[in-house]
Amino acid sequence: MTVALGQDKRRAEQVRGAGAFVLSALCSRAAWAVIAVVAAVALAVGSVHPGEPSSAARIAYLDSVIKCPSCVDLSIAQSDAPIALGLRAEVGTWVHEGLSDSRIEQLVVARFGEEVLLVPSGSGADVFLWAVPVAVLAIAVGVLGAYLWSRRRLEDVT
To answer: Is-above-0.90 flag for pTM?
Structure first.
């Protein structure tokens, strides 16, 4: 029994030592520098915009974001309803006429209402519903960073 207690104590010390190592690594300036570099690279890669999409790509995109007016949660690309087929043909015609994606979406919304789009409009409650999780995540990261930083300073003092 005492041998088992001794082994448990050694394991606990090893785990505690590993936890302290991980905590000190996360609190180091080098770790924060690596995190900053990774974030900067991710933002740089994400900010690169591809060239102008082809007409077929634009039509496929618009067909996937416009909801079939007579269906429940199906895009016009997924539906075989007569109204969806007609709307697909109109979208193709508008793209070939040179209308922008936003103008085509405006025409469809004017005809069928705001609910016809399967993506958020970027105004009102839609922005709020997309921004809240991002803000909560940013606050959580800030609180975690402040906690780790203050804990490191307390460890340095003692």
So the answer is: no
